[in-house]
Amino acid sequence: MGTVGWIAASLPALMWVGLLLTPWRAWSTRERIEADPRTGPADLSQITVLIPARNEADVIGLTLSGLQAQGHGLQVVVVDDQSTDDTAKIAASFPNVRVIRGQALPAGWAGKLWALEQGRAHVHTPMTLLLDADIQLQPGLLPALLAHKQRENRQFVSLMADLRRTSFWDRLLLPAFVYYFKLIYPFSISNSSSRLVAAAAGGCILVDSEALQRAGAFASLRNALIDDCTLARQVKNAGYRTWLGLSRGVVSLRPYGSLRSIHDMVARSAFTQLGYSTLLLLVVTVLFAISYGLPFLLLASPATWRMGLLALVAMMLSYLPMLRYYHMRLAWALLLPFGAVLYLGMTWSSAIRYWRGVRSRWKDRTYST
C-alpha cells in the first residue's frame, strides 16, 4: 500500500483517537448538576418561571407539580399559546400560577419565542427560569441549579433534559442525540470565557432578568429555530457568563417511541444547524462516511484491519461515558454507527424539506423558507 493509501486508512483512527485526546473532552459527562431531594425548603422568591405552552394538557400538570416541590415563593407564568385543549384550565388550577392567554402568532416570529416575549412583561424578579411545558424538575433540582449559578458567578445557566427512553429507537438514538450535541458544542469551551462556542439547552434555562433584557430578550431572535443556542450567543456577546450541563433531574415528559417521531424532532432543525449550507451538508456527509463507514471497509483488508479496529474501538470508547451516565447497557455502543447513518439521513431529510420551501414544522405550525 502506498503512502496515500496509508494516510487514507489512518484517517478514521486519527479522528477518533484525536477526539479522545482533545483537552476539552467533548465526549465526557463531567459537566452536570443533579437534584438533591434532601435539600430543605428553599426561598425561590427571586425567580419567576416562564412556561410557553401549546396543547400540553397531557404533561403541564406534571410540570407544574414538579415546580411546586422545589421551594416556596416561586412565581410561575404560563403563556397559553393558542391551545385547543385544556392546557390553560389545568395550569390555572395550580396555586401561584398565572395563566396568560397568548395572542395570535405574528409574521416573522417562531411560536415559542412569541409566547416567551408575551410572558416576559409579567416577570418582575431578578431571575427568570425558562422552562418548556414538557419538562419536570425533580425535587431539589432548582435549588441546586441556583446554588451552582451563584457559586460559579454565572448569569445564564442551563441543563439538558434527560430524554425518555421507552423503546428500541429511543435507546438507540436519544443518548446519541446528546452525544452529538456535545461534540458540536463542547460544553467546557461553551462554559469558558471564550466566545468561540456558545450553547444552551432550551428546556431549562435560569438567567438573570437584566442579562436577558440587555441581550435583546426574545425580539432580537424572534425567527430563530435553534433559539437556545442563539440566546446563549447573545448573552455571551453582551458580556455575561454562561454555563451548560447535563442533569438526570431535568426530565423530559415528551414521549418519542418511534423512529418517525425522533425523525421529526431532528429534521425540524438539523439543516438550520448547518446554516442551510449545501456545502456544509456535503462536508458532514463525507466526514460521516470516513469516520463511521471507512473503518468497516478497513476491517476487510489484511493490510488495514488494525487501523479499522483501532478506529472502531476509539469510537465506541468515546460513547461509553454517555451510556454510563444514562444507566444504559454498554453494548449499545456497538450500534453507534447504525445510529449515525440514521442521523445523517435525518439531516438530509431536513435539507430536502428546506429545498421544498419548509424551514421547519412543529406544533402544527409550518415555517416557510
TrEMBL record:
Keywords: Membrane, Transferase, Transmembrane, Transmembrane helix. GO terms for molecular function: transferase activity. The keyword Membrane applies. Residues 48-213 form the Glycosyltransferase 2-like domain. InterPro entries: Glyco_trans_2-like (IPR001173), Nucleotide-diphossugar_trans (IPR029044). It holds the Pfam family Glycos_transf_2. The chain crosses the membrane at residues 6-24, 274-300, 307-326, 332-355. It comes from the Bacteria. This is Glycosyltransferase.
